[in-house]
Amino acid sequence: MQAAQESVTYVFCDVNGLHETETNSKFGHEAGDRMLIALASELAKSFGQDMSFRFGGDEFLAIALDERLDKVQAKRYFLT
Description:
alpha+beta; 3 helices
């Protein structure tokens, strides 16, 4: 974070419905794992591997340094 000159933006991601009645229950845990890997890959492509983190079962964090908010928001559209 010390590399930031002007701003630090945090993007938190939580995969809704992974464990309850959605992906894992309908398609199996392997499908859920593939989905998590795909999300991690997209975050790494958008924010960089060194700025993308998995910190829980289905929770992720991405960090953008010194990027305009509209640019960061454009990166997150693949998540909605």
